[in-house]
Amino acid sequence: MNKYNGGFTLLELIATLVVFGMMAVGVTAILTQGVEGALQTRNDTATAENAQAALTRIAHEIANINTKENYTIDTTNMILTYYYRTDGSQSVIERTGTNITIQANGGATYTLLNNVTNAAAGFTVSQPYSAYSVQISLQVAVPSAYGTAKTETYTTVVDLNDQRFQ
After folding, report:
1. Contacts of 65 (CB under 8 A, 6+ apart)
2. What residues have CB less than 8 Å from 8, skipping those under 6 apart?
3. What pLDDT does residue 2 have?
4. Which long-range CB contacts under 8 A does 76-81 form with residues at least 24 apart?
5. What pTM was computed for the model?
6. Whole-angstrom distance, CA of residue 3 vs CA of residue 25
7. DSSP letter (8 states) at residue 4
8. Which residues lie below 8 Å from residue 144, measured CB to CB, with a gap of 6+?
9. Do residues 43 and 142 make contact, with C-beta atoms less than 8 angstroms apart?
10. Which of 131, 138, 135, 128 is closest to 161 using CA atoms?
11. Distance in angstroms (rounded) separating the CA atoms of residues 59 and 156
């Protein structure tokens, strides 16, 4: 009887495949978590950039309100109606659904920010410190790689140009 010792037994091949399969599952889980983390970071960064751009635009508009003209801050409906200092045109910033929009000089309406939460804190404009400062808060839903969106709040305070400087 001739015994051939040049190969692997079926049991050795199956054991090797099981070990490699378990290693592949572990590597796949690690890579999946890495990709989901990268997607979440991208969503967080994009949301922060969009909110900052919207806050900067709103702060610019508020800083240039003509305080000699009538301006209103409707804290119930979150509508800011004002006259722009340089050209005297009337503008409106408001929350419409999940968007913050601006309408300048009675013209077209532009969206400043999407994904604003529908909660009462979604877009707030108030004057907590004095008649010459305005606080703006935005609460934005951040899309999640895991299925449930989280919310982030962004706030700034803007000083109005009072009548002495106009």
Report:
1. 71, 82, 83, 84, 85, 160, 161
2. 16
3. 62
4. 78/122, 78/123, 78/124, 78/125, 80/125
5. 0.73
6. 37
7. P
8. 40, 43, 150
9. yes
10. 131
11. 8
- Chain position carrying tokens 């949301």: 47
pLDDT of residue 28: 93
The CA–CA distances, whole Å, from 114 to 3, 60, 72 equal: 75, 19, 23
Q: How many CB atoms lie within 10 A of CB 138?
A: 26
Low-confidence ranges of the chain (pLDDT < 70): 1-5, 161-166
Distance CA 119, CA 91 (A): 24
Amino acid at 135: Q
How do residues 59-102 score in pLDDT, each as one tens digit? Answer: 888 888 877 777 888 877 788 888 877 777 888 998 888 889 99
Nearest to 155 by CA among 130, 125, 129: 125
Tell me, what's the pLDDT at 27? 93
Q: Tell me, what's the pLDDT at 163?
A: 47
Looking at residue 13, its pLDDT comes to: 92
Q: Length of the chain in residues, anyone?
A: 166
- Give dist(CA 156, CA 124) in Å, integer: 11
Residue whose C-alpha is closest to residue 80's, from 54, 46, 115: 54
The β-bridge partners of 151 are 141
